[in-house]
Design goal:
single chain, alpha/beta, Rossmann fold, N-(1-d-carboxylethyl)-l-norvaline Dehydrogenase, domain 2, 2 domains, 8-stranded mixed beta sheet, 4-stranded mixed beta sheet, 12 strands, 43% helix, globular
């Protein structure tokens, strides 16, 4: 008789337990799951979690959680997992998925929480039937040695998941697992399933293209980007570019934080543009302390994932015949920062024509 896999008995891996992965794995464990492995190549981070537990500094709520977890180096993995949440950098997906193959059985569900459109690169290695995606609406900053900072308010944390070109058979299991974050935080609405994964992806991508991109260009938090005059105008312009490309691609954007983003921020008449301009800082209030992970990468001398964020909008815009000059400018500036041509500075907004 085949084994019935449940949230409580599944072997679960958080592969890529950096900032976001540590938050997710720690809260799953705090919620009551005892079968979650937090896996990373960072030796000091694993050692810190083993010695002191995973510490999550909830900056938006003024509290700190320390949770005993099961942390592993990727070299210490053994056996087969039933569910793997893929939370690494997307640019290494091909290599990472090849390395994970020995730890998958024929029914393992791999759920990528990465930005942009990562499902295709996952499915290219493991097949569409085992590939799932989740769009997250919270942010975190890696502190190291077992610590990470949750930079969104707990009340703003949500995740939306669905299957990628499959029958979604494992979606209920994934939802049951992620519901344990809700148990840990008191958020019954933390997880939502969707048949419109592309719409959820585009809604998340629009926010990332606008705010993660501009955070990297300027060095500002999401809240600061939304407050300052010119960066606010650029962010709204980027959001509209994303909406235009999504529409031309036949995608209906999913609601963000329960709101119709196109209706709230996508208006084109002068009065609707003014309303969107006034609303934007309030729309980003719950994520105001968030800094882009890409900013952290370039500050530490690493290449970031701008080609999978704003660059993904540019690429899809080219495919459907929609111009994306603001996203293209962000990509150019970020690559310039990576290559030492520009500094991270608010003055970079002067490169934009808005």
């Amino acid at each position: 008789m085949s084994r019935v896999v449940t949230a409580e008995n599944a072997r679960i891996a958080i592969y890529g337990a950096g900032a976001m992965g540590t938050v997710l794995g720690a809260l799953l464990t705090k919620g009551g799951l005892k079968n979650v492995d937090l896996i990373t190549r960072n030796i000091a981070h694993v050692q810190g979690m083993r010695e002191r537990g995973a510490t999550v500094v909830c900056e938006g709520d003024g509290l700190e959680l320390t949770i005993p977890v099961h942390a592993l180096l990727s070299s210490e993995m053994t056996g087969k997992y039933d569910v793997i949440f893929l939370m690494t950098k997307q640019r290494f997906n091909g290599e990472i998925l090849q390395n994970l193959l020995p730890f998958l059985h024929e029914d393992t569900a791999v759920c990528t929480t990465q930005n942009g459109f990562p499902e295709r690169s996952v499915a290219d290695v493991i097949g569409e039937n085992r590939t799932y995606g989740a769009a997250t609406s919270f942010g975190a900053t890696f502190l190291g040695d077992g610590k990470t900072a949750l930079t969104s308010k707990i009340e703003a944390m949500r995740i939306e998941l669905g299957g990628y070109h499959n029958d979604g058979e494992k979606t209920p299991l994934l939802a049951d697992i992620l519901a344990y974050v809700g148990k840990a935080t008191g958020k019954d609405d933390f997880v939502k399933t969707t048949d419109n994964l592309s719409g959820a992806r585009w809604s998340k991508l629009a926010i990332n293209a606008a705010f993660s991109g501009l955070s990297t260009v300027t060095g500002l938090t999401f809240g600061e980007v939304a407050r300052r005059h010119k960066s606010r105008k650029i962010a709204l312009g980027v959001l509209r570019e994303c909406m235009d490309v999504a529409k031309a691609s036949g995608v209906k954007l999913a609601p963000m934080q329960g709101h119709d983003m196109e209706k709230m921020l996508g208006g084109r008449t002068p009065i609707k543009r003014f309303i969107a301009y006034m609303v934007l800082p309030f729309a980003m209030k719950k994520h105001k302390k968030l800094l882009s992970g890409m900013l952290k990468d370039v500050q530490n001398g690493r290449k970031c994932e701008i080609d999978f964020v704003d660059g993904a909008v540019v690429k899809e815009g080219e495919r459907v015949g929609v111009e994306t000059p603001l996203c293209r400018q962000i990509v150019e500036i970020v690559h310039g920062i990576e290559n030492g041509l520009y500094e991270i500075d608010y003055k970079n907004v002067d490169f934009f024509d808005v």
